[in-house]
Design goal:
The protein has 96 residues and is an alpha+beta fold. 28% of the residues lie in helices and 35% in strands. The longest helix is centred in the middle third of the chain and has 14 residues.
Amino acid sequence: METTSDGLILCVHVQPSARKDELSGVHAGLLKIRLNAPAVDGRANRRLREYLSELFGIRKSSVEITSGQSSRTKRIKLTGVEKEVVERVISTLLSS
């Protein structure tokens, strides 16, 4: 996770068409997120933004995919959330 002047950058690996939405661990050094949405017509990207906004308690407009629109590896910019909150949520989900 990187901190920038206007938010946080998360690098994630996305697995579309999974059984359920979940933060499932680490893949190649990146957070692995499984999504119950196919990678068709941007549906997985929309669901990723929705899922992360729900997870961190921020608006969908505060979640931006800055690179990797058509890739499983994505850079996500989060605004309106503290780094400590993101770290705590991730740590809690990965330890359960």
